[in-house]
## 1
Amino acid sequence: MSSLRQQTIVQYVLLVAASLLSYGGALYGTFVFDDSAAIVKNMDVRNVKTPFTTLLQHDFWGNNLTDPTSHKSFRPLAVLSYQLENRLIGLNAGHMKKVNFILHTIVCLLVLKLYQTLWRDSGHFRTSFWAAFVFTVHPIHTEAVVGIVGRADLLASIGYITVLLLYQRWLTNGRRYGVLVYPALFLLTVVSMLFKETGITALVACGAIDLLKRIKWHHLQFSFRDFLSLHRSCLVRVFTLACLSLGTLVLRLWIMDFESPKFHRMDNPIGASNSITTKILSQSYLYWLNFWLLVCPDWLSFDWALGSIPLVESAFDWRIPLICVLYGAILALVFLSKESKSKEITLSLALAIIPFLPACGIVRVGFVIAERLLYLPSVGLCYLLATGYRRLIKRSIVFYVPLCFVCTMFILKTQSRAYEWTSEDLLFRSAMRVCPRNAKVYYNIARLATDQGDRETAFAFYRHAIELHPEYEAAHMNLGNLHREMQELDIAERHLRKAIEIHEPFPSAWMNLGIVQAARKDHLAALASYQRALELKPNYANCLYNLGNLYIDKQNSSMALRYWREAIQQNPRHSKAWANILALYDNRGRTEDIIRTSALALTFLPNDTAILFTRANAFGKLGQYETAESLYRQIITARPDHAVYRANLGVLYHRWGQKKAQAIEQYRAALRLDPNLRSAKTNLLKLMDAS
């Protein structure tokens, strides 16, 4: 084995070890933040039988691309990866994080290969290795690696870097079979784009690298005809890549039906601004902030919206000098590259800037800063940093000390940040230090507290979110829902109407207003609110379910049944709708319908104890005791601390005959769990008296 090959293997092993050291301690935890909407609640992921043709009609969040509220984030291959994983090992956050970790490690190895392909190391300092090492441990990547939705970025990066490597390999191997290579490059770029939109820039990067590496720009002093003659083959290649890139862009726009997505103003205040000056200055400041996060990744937050970054509205803003520093630094680097005739700097800048183009603000996006989107741009910046350290170390080996210090600090920061991504509570509270004026941070803490039953915290944080951003309609709606749960219906309605006043086409607010009105027995107003919610969102399963509840209140069970059935057609995993249908059949004594409907429900919700319980009761009424017993045992295994299930199994044994001992055992077990369960007490006394 050659020494060069041995050295390469050692470098790969070190990168794998560095990746494991950075992330290995945080590959567990729960689904956090966007994971919930994109994976846990996404029926395209949950239903493993969803065909790929359906994925091609939906966005990343499971909504129809034609839906006016869709953000047009078309990533069907990323969604398919989640669906396949669910099919093989189920939805397990820890397993999915481990897959992300493996993908990140693969990207790190590909990045090293890319550096080695673009630049040949010389001297003792291995620039490619150190650049790849910094990339591997960089804290800015934590969201993409440990946040499960970051898989789209990881898979897109693998496709992106593969395109660059294939193109460079083709150039160095004689440029033959171009008729096959160009379609292959186009296909790989499309695949990368179908993982995430960033992949669309892969061919642009190929063309830019080709131009920067092969054209001798000092020949521009010659005539234009001589320049074309000298670089004809390169310019033809770049033109071909430009046409293919344009084709990829047209394909992406066609998928969006050539319609731009609609975002809420609070998602990206810069994009929503009406002032061109404010847009330019604020967007330029965002460039600086993104650059600073790459250089000094201390300020990391899951979200940067709602007051996190005030607009730059004046040339006298204190942030203007930072913008000047950024643009000045870029110009200085380009000038330095020209003076030293070194193409490392310009190539690094190209690798940093090109994959950032989709998020640069030319096209309006639904975020202010997204740390995941810095995953690919960091490929260029990490090599730029390593190049700078190499020049310093050539002067003195003492500069190895700051390089090792930076790598160590990056590893420690990545470990700390990865740990914060293991739970929503840690993640949301970590953002309070970085973005203390971000109302969305407090909103998410309140939402989590609501789920955990901590109403005091929820009330406090929702109110603080509204103090920071009075026009935060989602906070008003959720605060209204909290007041409704406390039976404070007047206050609840006030907040819900405020949410609608802020944003009238808000289907969730209309539905929740209808729930409050129904609780007041104002059926006509509730019906109008539900209908408005369904106008805005026709396939709104929760609203259909609540509309069914309204008709039950109006003693119209046939209409209630109709709307509950519509709810499960829209969302077959709507457990409450199934439960209400089964309860209605039970009240009417339709036992056979319960058995038939519960069998269908269990194909979507195989472990739903409420459905299993109703089904077990139905079999018990039909005298099919063994089947009922098996179902009760399954329920008790899943919920061993639920006294009612034990008590009903006791009733089954009571009816069965010759099973009195088992019935007494189950009644006693139920009373140990709930000493006040009257039915278990009564039935136990009857059995004891009969004995």
## 2
Amino acid sequence: MKEEIIKRLESMRRAIKEAGIDAVIVPSFDRHLNEYTPICWQARQYISGFLGSAGTAVVTAEHAALWTDSRYFLEATEVLRGTTYELMKEGMPGTPTIAAWLRSLPEVKRVALNGECMSVADAAQLQKELRLGRIELDLSHDFIKQIRGEEMPDIPLNDFFVQPDEDAGRTPREKVEEVRRMMREENADTLIVTMMDEVCWLYNVRSSDVEYNPTGVAYAMVTAEGAFFYVDDRKMTDEVRRHLEKNGVEVRPYDRIYDDVSALPETAIVWVDPIRTNAELGRRVPSGCIVVDKMSPITILKSIKTEAEYQGCRRAMLRDGVALTKFWKHLYEMLDRGETPTEYEIDAILAGFRAESDRYLYDSFTTITGYNANGAIVHYHPMPDTSAKIKPQGSLLLDSGAQYYDGTTDITRTVSLDGKPSEKLRHDYTLVLKGHIDLQMAVFPKGTRGNQLDVLAHRYLWQEHKNYGHGTGHGVGHFLCCHEGPQNIRTDNNPSPIRLHSVTSDEPGYYPEGEYGIRIENLIRCIKVGEGGGEEFYGFECLTLCWLDNRMVDPSMLDDAQLRWYNDYQERVYREISPELDEETAKWLRDHTLPLER
């Protein structure tokens, strides 16, 4: 593979030289800025061989470099060895930005980028930084497509299917009208929609064009008078056509959106979300148009779950809790029999239990299974040939999720495999648990942002000079992307507040290198808990239903409110899940959800 990467670099260098380009930037994204990218747009993976979810490659006539973050330093080092690529450890002291690195190369005067695969905001920032070195940025080249030629994979052609209105809670016609209402508030008459999950949400359709997310390759545009769905005709079924026609949505060819945007009248007021619109579409907006540069209204509307979505989520969580209970019981029985499944094999076993439900589609992200010290690698993904064998000793961190037709799940549990965790492990686990509980018990005024709540999850760790580097919470879609915005819970400031009826994860952790990893994750829904002083006050309802390992907890470290929350949660898990289990499994769950006492 390394020899193949070197050949691809040679082809790239010939192509950029012929085009009069000095350097090419190859980001991870596709035309729709997806978290998971269809194979036809996996350009950075193709030119570098690096398969991590985040990274950017840069190629010049003499140099090649790849930027990625700390999650992938070890993986990238191994993959890039022998390819002539230099690894740039993003975020580390002394590592230059891409623009700064290019400015340091005197021969670089013209840089190319496929504008379809970077957001308007990122392209504008890059252009600003390159101009400091008098470097021109050209957004019109797709060199990967050029050098791959006939070997270029086709765009995915999986059929779209209809999400029933009763599962969505609103029809596409109703959603379009709500979008138009928000457009009128900004005096906008046109909205461009790049993100596939936003297109699917708007028109109540789903597909399977990318891993883990039930979305399909398509664009949308909403105007004061029309609603348009840009899609390859081969992906359309008669049912979807009837569904869209009934809701006043016009179907147009996939690539036509670029011409339609270019043809907008100069008097148009166009809403372009700079973070969620690809730069090429942004470039096509006629220069005379007024541009509304704000977060897409769909991003906000999608995050506020309807009652139907909420009820579907509850059903999915119950289903998921049943599967997880069966899985954990099965795993402990395997270990008791002397079997040692690998971290990699665990994923298929769990998926098998989830698949017992006919509402299960597939996983919602790549399962993270970390045995003992591997759990300390925050985004560790076991591979078939190198994953550790799980034995009845130590601890296991399991972060997994599922896509059900009526909801998306994401859950992490850290458990003892022998029932005898060390006092240090119990202590650290309980610190994480206390933060997890405090966040769920939070009461806060309307308009509160996630960074204002984040300290609740970190505080007990910080008091002992311990920390974790990942976010505490991310938004979760409804039978859509497991990771969605606009809200999150983390230390850095995000101006989007925690909105009523949004769903967010609560997942603090702790990862002492070489020892173990701890993460506890439930999904929580923002609810109204009262009013006072003319303000509304919000709190959280826990949606996830899965037992927590009593053996990992030091009850003496919990205050009265935390202990009460914990025991109430364990009892609720048993009460709601046990009726769905056989007698033996229900007894197993009862034994694992007994109340803690000091």
## 3
Amino acid sequence: MNSNFGILQRDFKLKTPDRKKGSHPKVDFSRRKLPIGLGFALVNLGLLISPSIISNPVQAAEQIYVSFGPIEVSLPIAALEVYAKEGRIEPALAAYTGYLTPEQLEQLKQVLVARVDITPVAIAQFLYSPPGEIILRRVGQIIETKARQPGFYAIRAALIKAAADPEGLTLLNVLREFPTYGIRINSSRGFEVIDELSNLIQQTGGAIATVEQQAITEASAQPPTNFSQLLDLRQSGSVSYSKESFTLNDLRRNRTFPVDLYLPNLQPGELAPVIVISHGLGSDRQTFGYLANHLASYGFAVAVPEHPGSNAEQVQALIDGFVSEVASPQELIDRPLDIKFLLDELKRSYGGRLNLQRVGVLGQSFGGYTALALSGAEINFEQLQQDCGPENNSLNLSLLLQCRAEELLPARYDLQDERVTAAIAINPVGSTTFGELQFSQINIPLMLVAGSNDTVAPALPEQIQPFTWLTTPNKYLVLLEDATHFSALAASTGSVPVPPQVIGPAPEVAQEYMKALSVAFFQTYIAGKSDFQVYLSASYAQYISQSIIPLNLIQTLTPNQLTGVTAAEASQQPSSLRP
């Protein structure tokens, strides 16, 4: 998943605790990064379908109505427009602005006029797709027409027309283009969503604090190591290498895809260990080119295929109206099969130079799913049926992708590859596609990497909790605090640009972490060099951690530890909000 999963966020800052060895960090979880609207958040999701532009003139909204039990208040949209464009607070708005700080007022202005660069065709393609309609139904429960009808059609019309406005798609334009006289906010459902978000934030914050404390505990229990005297794995290795590019054609599946292969220059007769990198949805081979170069400099042969049904080119074709969706459910099958076919072809063409008996796989997001499937996790249709029903209102946006697997014929797909003997999954999705049962079936060394500010594949349901399901003895959970879904990705000329505020702080720091940890992991479990295992420790993560993106690495976390966090957070809620 790359830029098509860009999320507009409102900045709720996390207070970073002062860390003292052996002390539990105290974190204010009341303010975190939240999407300013599920509708806008999913505009860039990219799971789009055919366009339909509404052109008939309709009445524009003039008032916003909010009901609190028997009390109803209203706000003229014109007053918001005057404030957004002129900074002047009219009497109709003054009654509400008194509750806001100057900083919040300025933020309100920015939110009203912040422009999303998206065409009417692209927004329409998304809003007429099955995932788009799911989001519209959920948002339509909160944003209704004046007559208290669900806002499904009105929101869709407003978003498409606002995207066609010369000023572009802004929240203010969406309000102005709402095709009924009034916009009614269903406060009861809105408060339910706020409660759900609050609970999710509290639970995620508690889980992050638990990971932090576990990292402190593990680091204190490890023998002291002077890492400054050891090889700095963030720096390039000493092995020279060359890069080759070629195209593979799987005739059986009628699937053609390009591959970049980084080949180290080794001694005659020496076989290079092999790593395969699988990119995310809407991404391409360039986004992990930095990591391929780095691994090659340590003697690994690195193959980076581009999955044709879910790459950046597919997203652009979708935006241009040439294809109907960004990724069909079949991609859940084809991606792992791409890797298996690639390994077969590498054996045929480079068998005398590569060791294909022990292969490492690294993937990000949808590529993380791919890595997990190759590692032995099978699609869990019972879990999908349980999690993807019409009553599902989960705020986990990655389920929009995962639940597409329900459209596949229920069967046992042979996606595991026995040649894959170690894997790294960065921001993976799979909590529903695989569930606890299938995560527990993975028996190879596995590293899960999470970003605490990932709103696409949220850390708690998609990485932290699944880590507790793993039974493989060699498992690692890496947590990059304040990192997003895009922090580990390098810039690519082929992908849709991602705004800096969506990428998050200092992606170069996150990429340095990935360089060091991937070398240590694959040297240990693919190249068989046990002296690199010292780097796979909480103490090494502390050593290279930088304050802008604090790094934690743990090897143990139990379900009871997370259950205890959830119970503690729930006990702090008012009794009226407890289950």
## 4
Amino acid sequence: MNQLTLILQQEGTTETLVPVDKDIFTIGRLPECNLLLPFGGISRNHARIVKIAESVWTIEDLGSKNGTQVNQYIITNTQELANNDVICLGNIKLVVKFVKSEEDEYQDGFSTQGHDYPQRTIFRNVEQLQKQWIDASGINGKSNDKDKTIARLKDLVDIAKNLCAATSIEEIFSQVQQVVFRYLDSIDRLALLVQIHDSGNLELINSATRDVSDQETLATDGSWISRSICQKVFAEKVAVQSADTQSDERFSSEQSILFKGIRSAMAVPLWDEHNVIGVLYADASLSSYHWESEGEEELSFFSALANLVASSVQRWLLLEKLKTEEVIRHRLERYHSPAVVQQLISVGSSPDGRLAPAENEISILFADLVGFTAISERLTPTEIAQLLNNLFEEMLQEVFLYSGTLDKYIGDCIMAFFGAPEPDPGHADRAVASAKGMLTRLQHLNANNFWQEPLQLRIAINSGKAVVGDVGSSQRVDYTALGATINLAARMEGICSPGECVISEVTYNMLSQKSDFYDIGDYRFKGIDRSVKLYQTKMYEPSGLDVLDHG
């Protein structure tokens, strides 16, 4: 089976091989074209090559301004292509070549037998390469050199010491940069790419150029890097070195190589004996033809260096993870009990740091300070803040004691829920126990003159389904609960008497111990088209006068 390949010829540049790898292959100035030619004389959609049968290809002009020529004749209709045809588009020439497909060779990457261009690309197992460079033998048939082996071991020890002393990823890369540019004269640019969050994607961590004056022109988004080379290195744990990428059809179709001036490239995986965590990548704008004779030795050094770098990067990743966990812990400890915080950290969160909203069965609790408006009239703003801070500090201990989660403070009201983020079949019991704990604790605080006057709470609890998770914008996110269950609990709090806790029938039916509650009848609430049976508990036995009149 013949495969169509185009040889791209442009004045002042080296010929480039462009495999036609799609049945419909478009050429033009638009980025979505299969062959992007951002040059004068080329239309946005200039021409199209179409495969109409096995080894049969045609070309047609797409209404371009300057037309499409085949063998110096402007084509007006679809024309079949033949071997060695010359296609002209503006100042660009494309020579048609039909080559026999050798699928197995292409996949393995070790042979180009049958192709009419020199093999200048090396693919090697990284473990073998590292041993070769240290041993100074087995490379290019050279004999063992004991002095050279000792010198290289000393170099590696010094490099390892410097890398271990680095306290940041910037320092690690700085050490690598110095070593690479000192040992490899043929390299112009260097990049460190690392997998973050086990996402499978490589992120550019840092990059540098040999000429400091060129550093500002180095794109920080890594668009100049050959992603296909890096991805192959990362996925297959192989070291790659190409002395002339534009003479190798494996790379010639990649836009970064074709139009960004990459002529030679070298990439090795960062691996820690078990996992590949990143890639060390280097390239140059000139072909490194000395790699044909000395390339494997330089590649083995680059690979040995990458192994040392991997250890330092792995240590940095671990430190970053610990820092992130500490930040998460500090954030979560404001809202969750310590036990729940540990569960959240062990389970982990999404890469953007958010806990995705999910439906949970929860019990929601509202605890409101009675008479807060009247109290506020008698206090200064500073005194109001002091009162709420002291009260919330005490009440929150009862929430966390029963593995509750603080949703938010709403003025003088505490909103908390039980049963999320980790499911808990006993969430109703925990919510009620927390409410009783709050009322008992406030009684003790009042007995010890906690504030200038005795304080009282109203507490309402409802149970049911709710959506729980991070909700908000990119600037601000709240971990909160949403839904009808929460709305009803907020309404219920308004009919509760001072120093009491009222619960819904749903919560009551879920309790393992119901004897502390008594039925206070059915109520209707604004926005809810059904009556709700409520139950109430007190810290003392109720009398007839204590029961709410809800007729």
